[in-house]
Write a structure and sequence with these properties.
Layout lengths: L10 E2 L13 E2 L6 H17 L9 H11 L12 H13 L18 H12 L5 H13 L7 E2 L6 E2 H13 L7 H12 L8 H10 L30 H16 L7 H9 L28 H13 L5 H21 L7 H14 L4 H8 L5 E4 L2 E4 L6 H14 L7 H14 L32 H13 L11 H14 L37 H17 L5 H17 L15 H11 L2 H7 L2 H20 L7 E3 L2 H5 L4 E6 H17 L3 H6 L1 H14 L13 E3 L3 E3 L4 H17 L5
Antiparallel strand pairs: 1-2, 3-4, 5-6, 7-8, 9-10
Helix pairs in contact: 1-2, 3-28, 4-6, 4-13, 6-7, 9-12, 9-13, 12-13, 13-14, 15-16, 15-17, 15-28, 17-18, 17-19, 18-19, 19-20, 19-21, 20-22, 21-23, 21-25, 23-25, 25-27, 25-28, 27-28
């Protein structure tokens, strides 16, 4: 659709021509587009009306902006009668959501514990959020208050002390009065569940930083850990990067005992958050106090003994050693800030790093640069303004969308869309390693793709693989110029470097120590945070990317790639569950993991390995996996899995079929059919696939969009996260692959 001058909804997502892919919403007070404003307000009212049954926003502010920006607003009155027609409608709509720089933006919120840290950091450091931002934050927090008055760990979760106390605190900082009825209801939930003394450890940290909890009520976070030699098996440099880079600034502030000045609000909150007199609380006895409604990872004897020893030894740490440790942690913090252009690896360490810089020097350039990138993490939808789990999922979504469009067989019809998408993929590849990698415990970066933007820059195995696959997939079009060969070589080299000793691939780095360190997991609310484990998703993506690469460059490291693929396939086979599924760690859940497992076990991988024993093992694995997926199909032809599967590690059916789960299930079955890995299943599955096609066609809205249903992303087993683009990408991809593998079909 052509673009024209417009005046859209009040909130706008502009294009940043310097920081490619940056998402920073702005509020345009001069806007007078009444029609757009009415649409946004109607979406807000609809969300409030249904918020206890549909906690997930539909990302309507973005959709209203793009509709009014382009003038593209189809209303198909007749249902689509073929796969081609359904697919074309879906692709036209989704194309309209693409921004001019080539990426697809979208909501990446969901966790409720992120924004409170940002609000606290802004309050302490004097960063003035606009009244418009504050209003939308208040809207969001009230919209996601549960019926019982509390707030959950994420938007679909039951009420927890972590979510409730921090959300309550945030609303009070944002100016909500203590006698506001919803505030009163939240306070009643907190008191009824024992008060904020039982908030988990991360919540204790934030309350201490704001001055409404005492530091000696936390288990020790000694910054001296960073002075240990690296050969120590529990050195922080051996932890999963998200773990170490969150606890790095936490330990810095803990070592300083830093907190906000105590004012009237702090004194009021000291009364409101607790059921006993604040000054009479014996804080050390609260170190292991965690609300039963929050606990996911329980403390163990070894952990409690260690914390107790450290707690009693800390008084003997010499002041010069503490100063040295604080200086060492600040050095690592500044390195992380500079390497990510002050975006940082994620939202938690982003705002804690800001606080560390502020407590070091409130007038420093580092503080100013940090504050300039705060808006990168904020997203606004009809449910309000939230803090995202990253600075967006730009590259990840764009790489998936690009592959979906490539498999549709209609890429030529969407030439401009494909060119813009490939340009974003080109712009997002990381070109250089971070400086002093070994000193700061970094894996190399050159040739990798990040999850979001090149400014962010942290390399990830599966993002690199999906970026590589997407770029190579685009080479089927003569209107897209390939990247320089060396850039593809760099990508494959870093993928090879990521492979672990067990044959699998982790996320950002290799596994650096044993799983026994998980006994030291102090979070209480997350699982498997201590090391970077090998995952079926990362392993499958890396295998697929190398197979795609070999088609273009058959002579590059032939033996090395073959050996790597073999080890990877053996790893994937080894972790398949008895029921034929794979547990997915980064989305919901067994449907997602099993899709990735099936994608890896293609005839190309097995043919490359050329081993009869592995061929037979793969055949059996594919048969079991397909049987698992087929057994979960619902009467309406779709598939639907609940986030409880991720949490409980047992398959849990959702109330309704989900278009995202249906897309994954169909993609897995079609991968097996296309590979002819199991002819009997390939022959019998066609009818099931056709039912899936009909479900997707029936689910599609009149304008070609798909409905936003339940939350589909997850991390660390227990916290869900939004991928707003999945509702479009995976139905498109599944329909396109069906048409390619099975041919056209009347609906």
């Amino acid at each position: 659709a052509g673009h024209r001058n417009w005046k859209g909804a009040m909130w706008k997502l502009p294009i940043d021509k310097v920081s490619i892919g940056r998402q920073a919403w702005v509020f345009d007070e001069s806007d007078t587009n009444v029609e757009a404003q009415k649409e946004v307000e109607a979406a807000r009212e609809n969300f409030v009306k249904n918020r206890f049954t549909q906690q997930h926003s539909s990302d309507m502010i973005l959709r209203v902006q793009q509709k009014h920006k382009s003038g593209f607003n189809p209303e198909y009155t007749d249902p689509a009668t073929s796969v081609e027609e359904t697919l074309r409608r879906a692709m036209k709509f989704y194309s309209n959501l693409q921004l001019e720089d080539g990426h697809w933006p979208g909501d990446y919120g969901g966790p409720m514990f992120l924004m409170p840290g940002l609000i606290i950091a802004c309050e302490i450091t004097g960063f003035k959020l606009s009244e418009h931002h504050k209003r939308e934050m208040v809207r969001y927090l009230y919209n996601h208050q549960n019926e019982d008055g509390g707030w959950g760990l994420h938007i679909e979760h039951h009420s927890t002390m972590f979510g409730s106390a921090l959300s309550y605190l945030s609303l009070r900082i944002l100016g909500e009065p203590a006698d506001e009825p919803r505030i009163v209801k939240g306070r009643k939930w907190i008191h009824a569940n024992g008060g904020a003394l039982s908030i988990p450890s991360w919540g204790k940290f934030w309350l201490a930083v704001y001055g409404v909890y005492e530091w000696n009520g936390l288990n020790p976070l000694p910054p001296e850990m960073w002075l240990l030699p690296y050969w120590v098996p529990f050195h922080p440099g051996r932890f999963w990067c998200h773990c170490r880079i969150v606890y790095l600034p936490m330990s810095n502030l803990y070592g300083r005992r830093a907190h906000a000045p105590i004012g009237d609000l702090q004194r009021a909150l000291r009364e409101e958050l607790y059921t006993e007199d604040y000054d009479s609380i014996h804080w050390p006895s609260q170190r292991n106090n965690c609300c039963a409604k929050d606990t996911y990872t329980k403390h163990n004897f070894i952990q409690n003994a260690l914390w107790s020893v450290l707690f009693h030894l800390e008084r003997f740490i010499p002041s010069f050693l503490r100063r040295k440790a604080i200086a060492e942690t600040m050095d690592h913090i500044h390195h992380e800030d500079r390497c990510t252009n002050y975006i940082d690896i994620g939202p938690v360490n982003k705002v804690i790093n800001l606080l560390c810089c502020w407590f070091e020097d409130p007038s420093s350039e580092a503080v100013k640069k940090h504050q300039a990138r705060i808006l990168d993490y904020l997203w606004v939808a009809e449910d309000g303004m939230k803090m995202q789990g990253y600075n967006g999922s730009q590259l990840w979504d764009t790489a998936f969308a690009t592959q979906a469009f490539c498999e549709s067989g209609m890429g030529e019809e969407f030439k401009e869309v494909m060119m813009r998408a490939h340009k974003y993929i080109d712009n997002s590849q990381v070109r250089d390693d971070s400086p002093n990698m070994s000193k700061y415990y970094r894996h190399w970066s050159k040739g990798a793709w990040p999850f979001s933007t090149r400014d962010h820059g942290w390399p990830i195995s599966d993002c690199t693989s999906e970026g590589l696959k997407a770029s190579l997939s685009c080479q089927r079009f003569d209107f897209i110029h390939p990247l320089a060969d060396q850039r593809y070589f760099d990508a494959v080299n870093i993928i090879l470097s990521y492979q672990n000793k067990d044959g699998g691939w982790a996320t950002y780095e290799n596994t650096r120590t044993g799983p026994w360190v998980e006994y030291l997991n102090p979070s209480e609310v997350f699982g498997n945070i201590m090391i970077d484990y090998s995952y079926v998703e990362c392993s499958s993506a890396c295998i697929q990317s190398m197979l795609t690469f070999k088609k273009r460059f058959p002579d590059f490291k032939t033996d090395v790639i073959k050996a790597s693929v073999r080890r990877g396939i053996e790893f994937i086979l080894s972790i398949q569950r008895d029921d034929g599924s794979w547990y997915g760690s980064w989305a919901v859940c067994f449907t997602y993991g099993t899709w990735f497992g099936l994608e890896a076990l293609t005839s190309e991988a097995i043919k490359l390995i050329d081993d009869p024993k592995i061929t037979e093992r793969a055949r059996v694995a594919v048969s079991k996996a397909c049987s698992f997926i087929l057994s979960k199909q619902r009467e309406d032809g779709g598939w639907g899995e609940s986030y409880l599967s991720s949490q409980d590690k047992v398959y849990s059916q959702s109330k309704d079929s989900q278009v995202v789960n249906t897309g994954w299930a169909m993609l897995g079955l079609l991968a097996a059919r296309e590979a002819k890995a199991e002819p009997a299943i390939s022959d019998s599955v066609l009818g099931k696939l056709k039912r899936g096609v009909r479900f997707l066609n029936k689910s599609m809205e009149k304008n070609g969009d798909f409905p936003q249903q339940h939350i589909s992303g997850v991390f660390n087993h227990n916290c869900m996260i939004t991928y707003a683009n999945y509702r479009n990408i995976f139905p498109i991809w599944a329909l396109g692959r069906f048409r390619s593998v099975c041919g056209e079909m009347e609906i």
